[in-house]
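User: I'll paste a sequence; please echo it back and then give the predicted structure.

Assistant: Echoing your sequence first, then the prediction.
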Amino acid sequence: MPSYNFDHLHQVTPDPEKAAQFYVNIFGAKVLNSHKMEDGRVLIAMELGGAPVSLISPTTQDQEAPSTPKYYGLHHFGVKTDDIDTAFSELKAKGVTFIQDISEPMPGVRMTFLLGPDGVPIELLQRS
């Protein structure tokens, strides 16, 4: 059976800079990097108590319904594994619903998303 470990939190927020400042001021988080993505959204990578936290501004589609909880707050959380292919097969056999096939969005990272309790997306990933 593959091993599983917590990997990161990813939060969608209308003002990533303001949210980052809150985490820095209140909890002593450390900003690791910040950059503007191709689609214009801001992505801030932080570390909070040793745990990676990503803050990102919403997409245009997200902004159309800002009062809907789905669009702000916790976007997903990541769980890493040492064998994503086996994990994918085992979890699918257990009835888990995957909302994305396995992809490799960047070198050294293979990932997929599955649907967790209450509709919370969970990113399953393997880093090499």
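The radius of gyration is 16 Å. The chain has one domain: 4-127.
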